[in-house]
Specification:
It comes from Chloropicon roscoffensis. InterPro entries: AhpD-like (IPR029032), CMD-like (IPR003779). By secondary structure, the protein is mainly alpha-helical. It has 2 domains: 49 residues; 108 residues, AhpD-like. The protein has 9 helices and no strands.
Length: 203
């Protein structure tokens, strides 16, 4: 089943192919990268230091814009750390859900960052290529298949999944795993929205 429906291209009004949306989303000038460190408030600086101290990648991606509203940035970065590193899903399984989310929202920056993470976690290039164009990858193990189908349906149906899809995910992951998977898709949707709205580059 398709991962996502093709979105309309922002500038041309024509449908993009799965191979084009990543390129189309890169190279645009950023709208807002967040407050300059020298101009941060005490609250912003405290959250900035917390993020910088807890992430090997530093303060990049959505964290810059979020720092404009530190009451958003602080819990968002905590939830992100949990979704990324502290669930029952393996890193490879989490990256599958994240790439599905990035592809659905055509977030080129989210895709670029997590394509590299997925490769490091052991995801095959054919699997990544299939997700990128909205196809179901071949050869998924039962847990990954349940993750793929649940996340794809969740993204494409305004947050609703059929009973059969839910039950397959519950059997594969358990109720806690379904909660975690739902949270991962939701959190990385927030990330994708932030990256897309503010045109945040991957580096």
């Amino acid at each position: 089943r398709p991962v996502r429906s093709m979105a309309r291209a922002e500038r041309s009004g024509e449908e993009r192919s799965g191979a084009d949306w990543v390129a189309a989303g890169t190279g645009l000038p950023p709208r807002y990268l967040g407050p300059e460190p020298s101009a941060m408030s005490v609250e912003q600086r405290a959250v900035y230091n917390e993020i910088a101290g807890s992430r090997t990648t530093g303060v990049r991606g959505p964290f810059g814009p979020w720092l404009a509203a530190p009451a958003i940035a602080q819990p968002a970065q905590t939830l992100g750390r949990v979704c990324r590193y502290e669930t029952s899903l393996s890193l490879l399984e989490s990256e599958l859900a994240i790439l599905l989310t990035a592809a659905h929202h055509e977030s080129a920056t989210e895709w670029t960052i997590h394509e590299a993470e997925a490769l490091r976690a052991g995801m095959s290039e054919p699997t990544i290529a299939a997700v990128r164009v909205g196809a179901r990858p071949d050869g998924l193990d039962p847990r990954s298949a349940a993750i793929h189908d649940f996340a794809s349906e969740l993204l494409c149906t305004s947050g609703r999944v059929a009973d059969g899809t839910y039950e397959a995910a519950r059997r594969a992951l358990g109720e806690p795993g379904v909660v975690e998977l739902t949270a991962i898709v939701g959190y990385y949707t927030l990330v994708a929205y932030t990256l897309n709205v503010f045109r945040i580059p991957a580096s």
